[in-house]
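Appendix B, record 7
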Amino acid sequence: MTRKIVSGLLGVVIALAVGALIMFFQGYEPFSTYAALAQFSLGGIAPLATTLKNAVPLVLTGLSAAIAFASGPVNLGQPGQLVFGALAATLGGLYINLPPALEIPLLMVLAILGGALWSGLAGFLRQAFDMSEFIVTLMLNMIADFFTAWVIAYPLMDHKAFSPMTSPIAQSGWMPDLGLLNSSVLVLIAAVAVMWFVFQRWRAGYEWRITGQNSLFARLGGCDVRGNFMAVMLVTGALAGLAGGLVVMGGPHRFIKGLGANYAWDGIMIAIMANNGLIETLIYGFFVAAIQTGALGMELITNVPSEIAQVLQAVLVLVIVATREYAALIFDRLAARRQASARKGGAA
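C-alpha cells (predicted):
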C-alpha cells in the first residue's frame, strides 16, 4: 500500500511539473494556469459538484476496464457498451413512463442489460469460435457507433432538433439533483462499493483475480475459467452500459450525437494509471475529471488552450506508469539490501 501511495503521488507531482514546463516553453504562466484549473473544478461547491458528476462515466468505464484487465479478458469495448447502454436507457425513457421510484431503477437496469448484451456478444464469439475478444470488442465499438448514429438520425430522431438526437426521455427518468449534487454520483459510489466487495471479498472475485494472474493455475485449482471469462465480460459490459445510462439520465436527458465522447477511452486510460486497482480507479477518475472540468475555465481566465488539458492527461499516463515501474524497482532493491544486511548481522 505504501508503495502505491508513494509512486502514485510521485507520478502526479512529476506529471504536473512536466506539464508546467510545457506551458512555460509555450509562453504561458504555469502557476496561474493550474490555479485557474483548480478554481473551476474544485474551488467551491458548484464546481466540485460538476466535477463529481463528470467523474461518473470516467470511473465506471475505468472500473470496467480495470476488472477486465485484472481478470484476464482484454475487453476494450467500453465505448460501444457505453453507447448501447445509453440507447437502451433512452428507449425505455421514450416508451415507458412510470413514477420516478420505478422509472429510474428500470432505466438503469435497461442500461446495464444493454452494455452486458454488447460485451456478452464478444464473449460468446470468443468461446464459440475462439475469436480474440481484443479484436472483437474493438470492432464492435465501430458497429455500435454507426448503429446508434443511424438510430438517432432516422427512426428516433427528434425532427424539431437541428442535429441528430432523440426526443427527451420521460421526466420521471431524470436523475434528481440533491442540491447542487446530481444523484448519479451516489449510484457511482454504490457501484464502486459493490464491485470492490465482489472483487476483494467474494469467491467469484477471488477466482477472477487468480485467473488474471495465472489461468493455468486457476484451472488446475478447480476454477471455472470459461464461466468466469463470460461472467467478467458481462459484468464489465454492464458497468460501461450503466455509465451510458447515467449520462443520459443525468443530462442531457436524451441521446445526442457524440454522446459517448471520449468517456470510455479516458476510462481505459484511468484503469492503466490505476494499475487495475478499483479504489485507485476512483481516485484517478476524479483527478482526470477535475482536469477536464477545469479546462474550460482555465482557457477563459488565462487564455491557455483547453487542449493543454489533453496534453496533461497524456503526460499523466506516461509518467505515472513509468514512475510506478521505476519506484517498484527501487523498493525491491532497498528491500534486498535490507535483507542482505540482516543476514550479515545474523551471521556475525
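Remarks on this record: The first strand starts at residue 177 and ends at 178. The two ends are 33 Å apart (CA to CA).
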